[in-house]
Amino acid sequence: GDSVTQMEGPVTLSEEAFLTINCTYTATGYPSLFWYVQYPGEGLQLLLKATKADDKGSNKGFEATYRKETTSFHLEKGSVQVSDSAVYFCALSGSGGGADGLTFGKGTHLIIQP
Amino acid sequence: DVKVTQSSRYLVKRTGEKVFLECVQDMDHENMFWYRQDPGLGLRLIYFSYDVKMKEKGDIPEGYSVSREKKERFSLILESASTNQTSMYLCASSFPGRNGYTFGSGTRLTVV
Questions:
Q1: What are phi and psi of B85, to 5 degrees?
Q2: Which of A104, A108, A109 has the highest number of chain B CBs within 10 A, making it the mutation to test binding with B?
Q3: For residue A83, which phi and psi values (nearest 5 degrees)?
Q4: CA distance linking residue A55 with residue A51, whole number of Å
Q5: Which of A42, A93, B35, B82 has the most CB atoms around it within 10 Å of its CB?
């Protein structure tokens, strides 16, 4: 079945550092890919998405490119802030159009130090 | 602002109790989902529904049931709560297709 693999962390960076969180996936067909963010004590919020190969999703300075050849969707940000501290989840929606639920990675806990 | 509302942020229940977790969305979404979130295991799909009165099992349905009598409401039921059901429960909804989901804030359930 479908699966998502991401680094679990915690990942600790200094403010203004460059961020990469790796995400690779296994799926049949052509899934859609997502990054969600969970701040402490809250539910998940959609950060960005990409629905086909070579698409780039972006939001709030974060970017991720759908790479079919490497089955990857790595999250990047050029200069992180303390407020970016959160848990980040990579997810995919299968070729069934998402009615059967997203498949999530285990989440990466990001800690940004001032 | 569109949203998914879960009725309780925190719940403490006793072993053997019947527990209802309620979720309401105001976006007219067809699809609704229940996940549980546990450290080291990420999010796991319990049940989902793509229409009123329809339900499908997810990856870990054992010990749970669901009810969807109205489009906007999706309830998760623990028939006889056990300590291994202590977890964070997240409800989500979406339109059909690949548009991403809207999540509620979660219910942290503790079974003692």
A1: -100, 5
A2: A104
A3: -70, -10
A4: 7
A5: B35
The token pair at A2 is 């479908």
Under a CB-based contact definition with an 8 Å cutoff, are residues A97 and A50 in contact?
Answer: no
Instruction: Tell me the sheet residues that pair with B91.
Output: B34
Token representation of residue B24: 């309401």
- What confidence tens digit (pLDDT) does each residue in A34-85 have? 999 999 888 899 999 999 999 999 999 999 999 999 999 999 999 999 999 9
Q: Judge whether residue A26 has pLDDT over 70.
A: yes
A98 neighbourhood in chain B, CB within 8 Å: 31, 94, 96-99, 101
Q: Nearest CA to A100 among A2, A4, A24, A25?
A: A2
In the predicted structure, residue B45 carries a pLDDT above the cut 60: yes
d(CA B26, CA A48): 22
Alpha-carbon gap, residue B79 to A42, rounded angstroms: 26
Write the residue in A32, A97, A106 that is nearest to B96 by C-beta.
A97
SS3 category, A114: coil
CA B110 to chain centre: 15
- Name every residue whose Cβ is closer than 8 Å to that of residue B62 and which is 6 or more positions away in sequence: none
Query: How do B73-78 and B87-94 pair as beta strands?
Result: unpaired
Beta-carbon contacts below 8 Å between A and B: 64
